[in-house]
């Protein structure tokens, strides 16, 4: 999974391909919970690029996007938001896969 390096990179990636951004933080227990199965999710949905966004490094971006809890997911294709799975709740592999499956 790619790790976001800059706001400029965020804008470039969201505008150029089908992408799922995963908003996370090192200290977040619920984020660590999903780490073991995320490679399987990434492999299953290979038509999307997956990008990890560290909430602490990109706090202003999270505020602008309304990311109020982590882990959260935001999907774009060609600059258009396809969907968001944003909450402070722990997420299961099934919930994440259902979210991605239902993106249009």
Automatic annotation (TrEMBL):
Q: Where is the Thioredoxin domain?
A: 1-104
Q: Which Pfam families match?
A: Thioredoxin
The protein's matches in Gene3D superfamilies, at most eight in alphabetical order, are given as: Glutaredoxin
Which SUPFAM superfamilies does this one have?
Thioredoxin-like (SSF52833)
The name of this protein is Thioredoxin family protein
Q: Which organism is it from?
A: Solibacillus faecavium
